[in-house]
Specification:
heterodimer, A: 653 residues, alpha/beta, Substrate Binding Domain Of Dnak, Chain:A, Domain 2, Rossmann fold, six-stranded parallel sheet, B: 168 residues, alpha+beta, Alpha-Beta Plaits, two-stranded antiparallel sheet, two-stranded antiparallel ribbon, globular
Chain lengths: 653, 168
């Protein structure tokens, strides 16, 4: 069998030779050394929860069929799966909590550098939270909003307020199933309790709790992170930028910002062009200071400031291999433990900044929210001082323009304009068939896939079939590098219907909606489309599908499940962590559609993956009656009265 | 006990339990955590390789006409009678590596530090106590099984893995 290519990214391929100099190898080398990987772990049927184990279930039907405690494959896989949800929901939500803490300080004026940049959104949030507006000052409102936001994490009774943003039918379903999150943290804790030895054994019941925690992420922790970040740093609007390692500057001090929070990176953006800093850079022999980002911190500062993208998850080591990075500044999540070891082969300084995330061998400069600007200056200074230590520089001449900044509010505005911002043009075009449906393609990179290939194949197939694609995270970065986030991509890659709409509105066929907590923006967009009308009365009625072709993190599982629980058909690529347990997998892949209207699926072949999404979209179009042209009926008054009578006779629900 | 380790590759889950068990069996302490700190570190005789995307445990086949035995210039390698294992007598080994080159399965290996060679001994000490080889005992799926030579074909026919040969 021919060996699978490591990457389709030209910059990565160019630097592959250079990565041979890493003393600990590249992520691809290390992935090779891990082969073959244990099938029990891959299939989710290895249980390490208690010390009578580890127990593994024989997937071929022979003994052992049960663990020491008596758990079978389905129970074990279900416990493992919802523990992944707990991990992912915890990561997103703790990120959200960090933002809420800074938000509270900023509201009180105790965090110099931070302020309320989006008053409109603050007022919107105040209304959602029931905070009195009246003629109170922005500061007073913000203090109260911060207090309520913080309270949602630790709330015990719920339901959490953002659930009200979902369509009414969806809210009723969640209530009926008993899966409304009471508080963000509580549901995560309850997963850890229920999956402890000897508590919940019923895969369906375990999944209900997994559902509740995932909803607490999507409609709780993640949504709070997005909303509060927008208020602190302003809601993204379309912005032009560039992507891939070619954005690094040979003659400037390059600072690569990697991780997930915008809290510190916003401050680095603010101070990096101060005259004092530029003077120091010049004195060190550099022509300026250049910022570029990796992973979701990159997406955050791209969306709001147009800071270029250096690359996605699997490019973090390649970035250092350019020899042009003075400092790689990291905060939280998706950092490779290898970074300091890789950096040892070059002059790059890896700087950790979060008390929660330290890496042996890295320099730690603690981010102090009370003194954030000075923390940022310290970091920029460290990078400048490192500039004279540079060795050979090899920056691949690979970069591509992109347009980012498509928040839910921006899409609303672009489609309708200032006076009647609305999703109506989108709904109309879905109804008339120019747009076949909507897909959210998100998630990570995974060494199990050819880097970026699966994202690009899925997204290109979708847009070629007139499906508009909403993106976040490393998937968005993959498509940005490929030029799919430019309006001209519509003519080149999109089907005729989608291309026509993109040209009319002036948008790319693939819209960058932000970081992975910003998947909450996709939920809001979905709710807005339902509310606009004409496409059913729940998210599960929409001709829409979700996908994470190259997922790898627990966060992806949490996101996937809050999409499923919100009514979306969601396909994952790479691998799926329950395949060793056919009963539990059947619950997720089939039965869940009857329970929540959305379901999981797995398809590692990217073309087949896209086909499955399109088939689902077509299924939903048929259910809505959009597959055939309707006869136009002229309604007179009598016909209208008849219609009203019908409507009144319907039971309320 | 007499037999061979039979590998049903379709059942390999790549859990590496056989690799661990083999190393422990060939350690001084024969105990998992104690063996991890031994010097020299115990070496597993079975390895997992990837063939066409599928994991395959490879270990000595104890061939009847063993190429390693033929290649050995000092008589350190010998076949222990008909149906017996191919064994290495360390005191006779000069570490020339001819056997490593000769073995078509790549299952005779050399310590990188010491010149010593090592290979599967079919756990003869265990067999003497009527215990199956360590790798077989550790395998959770029945991918590895210990079967008497000559009976493997009958067993395969019984499981339906191969068709019975005409005329028995």
């Amino acid at each position: 069998m021919a060996e699978k290519a490591r990457s389709v990214d030209r910059a990565c391929i160019e630097l592959m030779e250079e990565t041979k100099n890493f003393t600990i190898g590249s992520c691809w080398d290390r992935a090779e050394k891990q082969q073959p990987q244990c099938g029990f772990g891959l299939g989710g049927i290895c249980c390490r929860i208690c010390s009578m184990g580890p127990c593994q279930i024989n997937p071929f039907g022979d003994e052992p069929k049960r663990g020491v405690c008596g758990a079978d494959a389905d129970t074990i896989a279900a416990r493992n799966f919802i523990r992944m949800i707990a991990g992912g929901a915890a990561a997103h939500s703790d990120h959200g909590r960090g933002v809420a803490e800074v938000f509270q300080l900023a509201a009180k004026g105790e965090a110099p550098g931070y302020g309320i940049k989006d008053e409109q959104k603050l007022l919107q949030l105040a209304m959602d939270f029931g905070v009195e507006i009246g003629d109170r000052s922005v500061q007073d409102i913000a203090i109260d909003v911060g207090e309520v936001a913080m309270g949602i994490f630790g709330s015990q009774h719920g339901p959490i307020p953002f659930l009200k943003r979902a369509p009414l039918k969806r809210q009723a379903l969640w209530r009926e199933l008993g899966v409304e999150p009471r508080g963000v943290d509580r549901e995560i804790v309850e997963i850890m309790h229920r999956t402890h030895i000897g508590v919940d054994m019923d895969p369906e019941n375990l999944m209900l709790q997994g559902t509740r925690a995932a909803l607490g992420d999507g409609w709780g922790g993640s949504m709070l992170a997005t909303e509060l970040q927008d208020i602190l740093f302003h809601t993204p609007t379309p912005t032009l930028s560039r992507a891939n390692l070619g954005v690094l500057e040979a003659e400037q001090v390059n600072i690569v910002i990697h991780g997930h929070e915008p809290l510190l990176s916003e401050m680095i953006v603010a101070v990096s062009q101060e005259p004092e800093m530029l003077k120091k850079a010049k004195a060190a022999g550099a022509k300026g200071i250049n910022l570029a980002g990796i992973c979701c911190t990159a997406n955050e500062i791209l969306m709001r400031h147009g800071v270029p993208l250096a690359g996605n998850f699997l490019q973090q080591e390649s970035a250092i291999a350019t020899g042009a990075v003075e400092a790689m500044v990291v905060d939280i999540q998706c950092l490779f433990a290898s970074l300091p070891k890789v950096a040892e082969c070059y002059h790059t300084k890896v700087i950790t900044t979060a008390a929660k995330a330290k890496i042996p061998g890295a320099t730690h400069i603690q981010f102090e929210e009370h003194d954030a600007l000075n923390t940022a200056r310290k970091i920029v200074n460290a990078a400048i001082e490192n500039f004279p230590n540079r060795g050979k520089v090899r920056i691949p001449d690979v970069e591509c323009d992109l347009i980012a900044g498509f928040s839910h509010e921006t899409i609303n505005y672009l489609l309708g304009g200032v006076f009647r911002a609305s999703y109506k043009p989108l709904n109309d075009n879905i109804i008339n068939g120019r747009i076949r449906g909507v897909a959210g393609v998100v998630g990570c990179n995974n060494t199990k896939c050819t880097h970026d290939n699966d994202h690009l194949t899925v997204v290109k197939e979708l847009i070629a079939n007139d499906v508009i694609v909403l993106q976040t995270g490393c998937s968005a970065i993959a498509c940005a590098k490929e030029g799919l986030m430019l309006p001209e991509a519509a003519a080149k890659h999109a089907g005729p219907g989608l291309a026509e709409v993109c040209e009319t509105v002036g948008i790319p066929p693939v819209l960058h909606m932000g970081s992975c907590v910003d998947n909450s923006r996709i939920l809001m967009a979905a709710a807005a489309v339902v509310k606009e009308g004409g496409l059913g009365d729940d998210i599960s009625d929409l001709p829409a599908a979700g996908s994470a072709p190259e997922w790898m993190s627990e966060k992806a599982i949490s996101i996937g499940h809050y999409f499923v629980a919100s009514g979306v058909y969601t396909v994952f690529g790479a691998t799926f962590p329950t395949l060793g347990a056919p009963g539990f997998t059947d619950l997720l892949f089939n039965k869940y559609e009857k329970i929540v209207g959305g379901k999981w699926d797995f398809e590692p072949d990217p073309l087949a993956h896209a086909r499955k999404m399109i088939d689902h979209i077509d299924k939903k179009r048929r259910a809505l009656g959009l597959d055939k042209a309707k006869e136009r009926v002229l309604m007179d008054m009598a016909a209208r009265r008849e219609l009203e009578k019908e409507f009144e006779e319907q039971p309320a629900g | 006990m007499k037999g061979r380790v039979f590998v049903n590759i379709e059942r390999c889950m790549a859990c590496k339990r056989c690799v661990l068990a083999c190393a422990v069996e060939h350690s001084q302490s024969k105990e998992l955590f104690a063996s991890m700190t031994e010097v020299p570190a115990p070496r597993p005789r079975v390895q997992l390789t990837q063939v066409g995307g599928a994991p395959v445990p490879t270990e000595c086949r104890h061939c009847d006409a063993a190429a390693c035995v033929a290649a050995c210039p000092t008589g350190a390698l010998s076949k222990d009678g008909q149906d017996g294992p191919v064994l290495l007598r360390a005191e006779r080994c000069v570490g020339c590596g001819s056997c490593v080159v000769a073995c078509p399965y790549g299952v005779v290996r050399q310590h990188t530090s010491a010149k010593r060679l090592y290979k599967c001994d079919l756990c003869i000490e265990r067999l003497a106590r009527d215990r199956e080889p360590a790798c077989v005992e550790a395998c959770p799926t029945g991918c590895l099984s210990f079967r008497a030579p000559g009976k493997i074909r009958t067993w395969l026919e019984a499981t339906g893995a191969v068709q019975a040969s005409p005329g028995g």
